[in-house]
Amino acid sequence: MQDKLLQFFSYFQNVSNKKKFFELQNVHKKKLSKKEILFLKNINNQLSIQEVINIYLPLSNLLNFYINFNYLQKKYFNKIFKGIYKFSPYIIGICGSIAVGKSTTAKILKILLKRKIKNYRVEIITTDNFLYSNEFLKKKKLMKKKGFPETYKIKELVNCILKLKSGFPYIDTPFYSKMQYDIVPNKKIIIQKPNVLILEGINILYKYRLNNRINKISLSDLIDFSIYIDAPEKFLKNWYINRFIKICKNSFYNAASYFHKYSFLSKREIRQIASSIWNQTNRKNLRINILPNKENASLILKKKSDHNIENMRIKNR
Length: 317
Known about the structure:
The chain is an alpha/beta fold and 317 residues long. Helix content is 43%, strand content 18%. The strands form 3 sheets. It has a 6-stranded mixed β-sheet with strand order 2-5-1-8-9-10, covered by helices on one side. It has a two-stranded antiparallel sheet with strand order 3-4. α3 runs antiparallel to α5, α4 (49-81) crosses α5 (102-114) and α8 (233-250) crosses α9 (267-290).
């Protein structure tokens, strides 16, 4: 066994093999196509294509570097140890405060990671899909803590990730509607054997501990590369309030929306409600559960007041 381990590690120290590894990168040299730009603009009209070129393209190259390295490790480990590893997706975690832009970043990276290889499957799972229903949260008096770690079905989420890691052909997850502000009964999302899985949520780096039959496992243990999107609290509060106002106003003609009841109020009244929710819930969650885990991320993206990325810092791995 020791000889095989030495053989495995020596492979990655060999110059010729390193050259082959870097050849596998196929770093994106081609320009963004009109179709790709259209897809990106559909994500967010305010998105700067220059920022995509300067920040997100290099970031997608970095992620491809780690994805390919992970693939090579398993390939040559299997060669030496006779196939002990099964196919499993590379898992990228994206976290940070509410309203910081996690969903936008996840969608951008999905497009950029798929552009290199035909039929390359990149899927996104949001932890919102594993929130307890509003009915349950009200029963347990947790509605004012919605988004805190205890309001998620974390065991169910971990089991889904473990299934994908174990080579299951597909999983199904619940569906959370942002407009209904609740889990939609009897609606499922199918995730089919992705090459890369992007897990997006505010508390993915929080150290949940679940008793597994073998040992204790945390959600963060299942993530291969994590990205924390950071911004000063005053920016986060402002972004949250503006988003809340926009959602309320867009709900005017949608009686099924949770926010429809606020749509008849003045902008000032809605702003006061949003500010109160931020102070009572989101600020506490940020300070207690989210921000303390920032330094555990593989990469930190720092945003300015206009939502553009100011700088990035990568952790030594």
